[in-house]
Design brief:
By secondary structure, this protein is α+β, with helices and mostly antiparallel strands. The protein contains 11 helices and 14 strands.
């Protein structure tokens, strides 16, 4: 099956929308096996890092050339490649070459520790296409919020180079890639046991803010599936964004209390699996008892299609609701993007997105 899926990915630049459905259907039973993240329940800190590392370790390795070609194919859209940092576009090279666009390592190569250097260099979970000039401008700088601007992309003004509020030189990718970049770094740290201080100037607080402000969208979720078909490992922070709050990426040994984590008034997690078929699980936590707790699901037009009135739940712990893709009348809803939100008598959560694939 792997060879067949690899063939599909290689020709996806011509049939991307159709192949998306095919890949999801063919691989759904493997990608979303309930036991993929088995053993991570209730863990935090170093225990969670170790559990996730053991799950995503020893992935299938490709040469740097092969990995670069696959990354270009994954990121091609309508015959063009887009620099993930600046937003500049260039025609997809045919045959694939790296003359006009580079393979950018989100975790800079110069900060690779000894061991598995070739594997790190070719790990597609942190490889993206970039314009060479912008790539050189970023170099091995840490990511950060630019306060004093030295350079701004003419294609997307949210991409900047300069210094942060502490007058430290840093690079800021465009807004649409900030969360993707943060999750690529978090993945890399877990996969290779490398903490953020390995690169001077990285601020965990900024990266986690990017992670929360720019949650995984359909393109990032789709890309995670494609890398999985090739490397046979996943980015846990895309599947379970809540893991980021349970890990100190500056010091993996720092204990994070699950109880303290759930002290937030209201927290709604990304559903899993996502995309899903036929069911998906939505997890949430509440800090105090409420007269009601409702999980509301809307279609992309903003029309409410389903309300779960949750009668039995526990405070300051993880609660779960399973949705089978049916509306209030028990009718199956069509494939597409759906929105969901948690509400109590005093608070409303952030809105999350899910994708149903029939």
């Amino acid at each position: 099956m792997c060879k067949a899926i690899l063939f599909l990915i290689m020709i996806m630049k011509y049939f991307k929308l159709v192949l998306f459905n095919i890949i999801i259907i063919v691989l759904a039973s493997n990608i979303y096996a309930d036991d993929y993240y088995a053993g991570t329940e209730g863990l935090s800190g170093e225990e969670l890092v170790n559990a996730l590392h053991n799950i995503i370790d020893d992935h299938i390795y490709y040469s740097y050339q092969q990995a670069g070609e696959y990354v270009f194919i994954m990121n091609e859209e309508d015959g063009y490649l887009t620099c993930v940092y600046s937003g500049e576009q260039t025609p997809m090279p045919d045959p694939i070459n790296f003359q006009y666009f580079n393979r950018e390592h989100t975790w800079p190569q110069s900060y690779f520790e000894e061991g598995e250097i070739a594997v790190k260099k070719s790990d597609m979970h942190h490889l993206y296409p970039t314009n060479p000039d912008v790539n050189n401008l970023r170099a091995n700088l840490p990511f950060g919020d630019v306060f004093n601007v030295w350079w701004t992309s003419i294609y997307d003004s949210t991409c900047k180079h300069g210094t942060n509020i502490n007058n430290e030189e840093c690079f800021e990718p465009r807004d649409i890639h900030k969360g993707d970049a943060a999750r690529a770094l978090f993945y890399f740290g877990i996969r290779y046991y490398m903490e953020l201080p390995e690169v001077k100037g990285w601020e965990q607080e900024v990266l986690k803010e990017w992670h929360n402000d720019d949650p995984p969208d359909s393109n990032e979720i789709y890309r995670n599936e494609q890398v999985y078909t090739l490397q046979e490992n996943r980015n846990p922070l895309i599947d379970h964004p809540e893991f980021a709050d349970l890990i100190d990426f500056e010091d993996f040994t720092n204990a994070i209390s699950i109880n303290n984590f759930y002290d937030n008034t209201l927290y709604l997690y990304q559903n899993y699996p996502n995309p899903f078929n036929p069911t998906t699980t939505v997890s949430f936590s509440v800090a105090q008892m409420s007269s009601f707790v409702n999980l509301e699901i809307y279609n992309i037009k903003g029309q409410k299609i389903k309300t779960f009135r949750i009668q039995h739940y526990e405070i300051q712990t993880l609660n779960q609701v399973i949705w089978d893709g049916k509306d209030e009348n028990g009718k199956q809803v069509p494939s597409g993007v759906y929105l969901y939100r948690l509400s109590t008598n005093n608070f409303q959560s952030n809105i999350q997105k899910m994708l149903l694939m029939q």
